[in-house]
């Protein structure tokens, strides 16, 4: 089967849902597809026990639907997975988007056909889709990172990855092993510890985690947020991390030791990982002495409950928060295996054998081992641009982009949360990028031939040879009686120079960061064999938005619009 659209959006999470609405509102014929069985993206796949956001509820949503913003319920200060999923399903229903979304449809390949200025997309369902614009919202924490342990497939028990959690898993009364203790691992462990018969946590690196401060939302709290919502969004979109607090401008060592302890103590009591790292002092993420102050404060707190869990390296991963993680290890049936001292040797039919010879017998193994982040979902498929190279080949030295949304040599392709986008609470960044991409497309449409409703990839022409894709570059369109250029649609692409410059900006900005000294997904250093490289823009959302505005004011500087 073959179908054609003005724009195809791939992914139906926060990014894809809004992008579909925006482009449809602009009058384009748009379709969204997703490999998943429903909309929701991250919140469809990550159904593991305890899954929740670590952005506070009031900012983990869209700002563009004011009625929803004021009325949609969020019962606690943090939203849990079923609530985020229900919220996104509600948005889709309210704006009648479902009729333009095709689920269970994975994009396998997309090839730019320059003669017709269209992307030709092949899906797992055997469909061919021709589209003038291709917008990918494939997710930056979406492709699961499965550990490559010896004899993993020998294990006879239940084996799950948190990022593809099936429905109806019952862990009660079972012996469970959890590998990994990042944000996901600590949520799972905290959630299941009390229900399972035995819990063994296989830990490679201890974590710094601060309390989340989660609690029920009172009516007066919600009323106050509702009153201030305009200011809250304005502040978030002009701040660095968009987490809804003012980032500190005070250097750690500029205050007395007593004052410092008090500031940390207040932030600890209030909760939230980003607030603790970036709301207390301004230099924790790049100054070693400041980092050590924050790290030692946290270590002291951890030591009081769980000595084995105390980290010693820099406090320089995505800041975590929890609802009683360390305390779970006081339970008799919860234990921890230090993988640095005693690595996993292999899986057996009954469980996991560690280097000391112990076989940890388990009914269930949960891999909370994270994601092949940012580019993982791009490099596993074939997206072939105008030079016949795939994105994977284009990114051989590490993923690059212009402003996180476009890649040179890949015309009419836009990436939501593509490489080197801002490192923030993500919905405000997603909104920013969707709105920018939509504006670029609108401008391209204006500059191209005036678009008529059409289904064959051409602005004004419905000639049969065009529709069937059999007209070569050098042929003239008989219907138009003119050069092919005059009946093809607009083409827009980041320039190679803009992409190179943006890559340098991002690299430069990350150089002073202590995050770069720790192997985590933020620099692509968590997947064996993956090159560690800059994956984010660390200049903050406020500055990023200004750069986008400047590009637009300069006629979309950095883009070639034909
Ligand atoms: P996603 O929600 O990841 O959606 C991508 C979609 O693309 C998926 O449904 C996938 O099936 C689909 N897809 C991928 N490849 C293909 C293909 N080839 N063909 C068809 N479909 C495809 N961010 C925050 O800011 N704050 C938080 O508190 C927070 N908590 C998180 C907690 C967890 C457990 C995880 C995993 C992530 C969290 N994130 C958080 C990040 C989260 O991913 C983003 O906030 C946001 O949901 C991303 O939306 P998205 O639409 O860009 O991508
Ligand atoms: P993370 O933060 O990448 O954490 C993955 C965890 O799994 C972490 O503790 C890793 O240890 C551990 N891991 C990974 N591979 C292995 C192997 N092979 N052996 C042992 N342990 C391993 O992923 P999350 O899902 O927790 O969170 C990702 C983001 O999603 C998070 O920041 C939120 O934004 C939501 P390591 O630390 O590398 O030593």
TrEMBL record:
InterPro entries: FAD-binding_Monooxygenases, FAD/NAD-bd_sf, Flavin_mOase-like. This is Cyclohexanone monooxygenase. It holds the Pfam family FMO-like. Keywords: FAD, Flavoprotein, NADP, Oxidoreductase. One of its GO terms (molecular function) is N,N-dimethylaniline monooxygenase activity. SUPFAM superfamilies: FAD/NAD(P)-binding domain. It comes from the Eukaryota. It comes from Cladophialophora chaetospira.
